[in-house]
UniProtKB/TrEMBL annotation:
The lineage of its organism: Eukaryota, Metazoa, Chordata, Craniata, Vertebrata. This is RRM domain-containing protein. PROSITE patterns: RRM. The keyword RNA-binding applies. It comes from the Eukaryota.
Length: 274
């Protein structure tokens, strides 16, 4: 039985990336994007679909880069669609990427954003296949950090929040946790500004904690269409007691918190498949 393993990180492997050529110029950019997404998303969840016009020295038209989370989905999509009349009855050339650059590979350990985590989990497990709960959410600003300082146009404030989230997969009997801390310095011009910043920071720390929880999850796709959920054995996985202790003090190390996902920018690809 074929098995594929997905984790909640930016996909960078070349066997997960598909190129599409010979897209005729009879459609607009948006139409090409919409139709390609409709075709290729049927094979599995897509991380990125980018449509670009051909280079000036090439015939008019478009090419596309499609990144799947799964190498198996990308391979199936390539085999089924290569040479088929997908758009306006035009046969398209579809090939797997054979190129990996240092720039592209730099995102190997980049966690998915909060929105991407939800998208992938919902696609593979369904909206009822997982749940998240807040264990702890508290302000960690100490008295010295929270002291007001005069600033041009208002008062300079600094606030910090910590959060612990619980992520559960009831149908699989799997539970994990994630912790995060965020802080922000800003010029406060009134109580409404402070309230807005607090609400924004609380939402941000919840999202970061959930991303941290998802980073320890593996989705195992079986050839029969079923999905299993397993946890990675990582050294930075926090136990409940440890995390409770961490969030009870203001000296929670910011270096332990996951950074924001920086979307891996696609450079100008040399569209020559070896």
């Amino acid at each position: 039985m074929a098995v594929d393993i997905l984790d909640f990180r930016v996909p960078v492997d070349s066997n997960k990336t598909v190129f599409v050529w010979d897209i005729p110029p009879v459609l607009t950019h948006d139409q090409v994007y919409e139709q390609l997404f409709h075709v290729f998303s049927s094979f599995g969840p897509i991380y990125l679909l980018k449509v670009s016009p051909n280079a000036p020295l090439h015939p008019p038209g478009f090419y596309a880069i499609i990144k799947f989370y799964s190498a198996a989905h990308a391979g199936t999509a390539q085999k089924v669609t290569d040479g088929c009349p997908l758009l306006q009855n035009s046969a398209l050339k579809v090939k797997l990427s054979s190129k990996r650059t240092p720039h592209f590979s730099s995102g190997r350990n980049t966690p998915l954003s909060h929105a991407r985590c939800l998208e992938l989990a919902n696609h593979c497990l369904g909206f009822n296949g997982w749940t998240s709960d807040i264990i702890t959410l508290k302000e960690l600003t100490n008295e010295e950090e929270g002291e007001d300082e005069e600033d041009e146009g208002g008062v300079r404030r600094r606030i910090r929040f910590g959060c612990m989230m619980k992520l559960s997969f009831p149908q699989h009997g799997v539970t994990t946790r994630g912790a995060a801390v965020v802080e922000e310095s800003f010029t406060c011009t009134g109580p409404e500004v402070l309230l807005q910043r607090r609400c924004k920071l609380q939402r941000s720390v919840r999202e970061k904690a959930l991303v941290r929880a998802f980073s320890s999850v593996l989705l195992i796709l079986l050839g029969n269409g079923k999905v299993m959920v397993e946890l990675k054995q990582t050294s930075d996985q926090l136990e409940a007691d440890e995390t409770e202790d961490i969030l009870q003090v203001n000296e929670f190390s910011l270096s332990e918190c996951p950074a924001d996902e920086e979307e891996v920018e696609d450079e100008d690809w040399d569209l020559t498949v070896s």
